[in-house]
């Protein structure tokens, strides 16, 4: 099983998903978004592969992929993973050739244009598992592969029930469509939207009857995770649908229509597909709670890998910290932190309060005092160092990397705005959450 399967991980999603996570995706791809202080989203997917003994992984990247490519090549070279010899991640960045002058047009187009690598004589894989790189979940892919092989399917889809939470947020629908599954767990229909949502919005899996064939069926969300036989994938991409760009909306429905056997694997664990800012914020807040409702970052039986960082221990001086995650190398003075995620190298000044927020930290340390005090001019942002200044109050916000927040600042969404674009001022509001952009400067005394 180790030798016959390889993973294809998509480092970024569609343009639509990228926009829904904006501005976190302004300078990075979805997979590179920091999560839980020390990690990036793609770490969860790569770790699933490692823990499932899938040793060959191809990472397909395209949009804003510089930081993601660097992270993957540095973190997963194989040498840095204790006890994981032979493990290999090969990054395939979007490219142009004489035959293909444009960029990848979608997931199907990306795989098609990389088939020459996947068909290499040195690649012994007979099956491929295709994975979005920005989802947060733990899955043993060996169980998915076992279902695929035991049913002798051409394609197997991982699917999940639709919890009531998603129905309470009309803008949060499955990014990969819905499938109708028979009593034998065979996928018999695919649709982009769920017809039965309005009829019974609290059901997790609704059962109906096909009046023509009298087939009992259940409806699930597709997770965008597919196991495909190598021969079937080549035929689908080159022969049957040579112009199709997307796996979810074109290739999978097409495979069902032409009679390929498409099976389902029902996944009942935690899964967050990061459809928007609210989903990312919710997953981040769950990481600070000692409960089983979210992703378990501390599961010793399913290690979460990432790039090791040579950072000093966090320095905490007379701070009050409750229900929070603190990354490495932070400098926290006499502050109050509650229910928050504090990323690496974060500096927080005296008497500042951070509540229910995500601080992504910084890439560098910066001096915080100046020999010439005139360099700092009130209300201008000149001379403000990276970090959170003194006497500031931040609540329900996401502070991206390398942000300079001055003294006496309040970021609380005081007017209860749900959606607002203040990018020229260094922030936007999405779903009532204030997101301060990467490298932004918020002058002393600002109120947001």
Automatic annotation (TrEMBL):
Gene3D superfamilies, per database record = Hexapeptide repeat proteins (2.160.10.10), Spore Coat Polysaccharide Biosynthesis Protein SpsA, Chain A (3.90.550.10)
Protein keywords: ATP-binding, Nucleotide-binding
Reply yes or no: does the keyword Ribonucleoprotein apply: no
Respond yes or no to whether keyword ATP-binding is given for this record.
Answer: yes
The biological process GO terms on file are:
glycogen biosynthetic process
In alphabetical order, the GO MF annotations are: ATP binding; glucose-1-phosphate adenylyltransferase activity
Give the protein family. Belongs to the bacterial/plant glucose-1-phosphate adenylyltransferase family.
The name of this protein is Nucleotidyl transferase domain-containing protein
Q: Which organism is it from?
A: Papaver nudicaule (Iceland poppy)
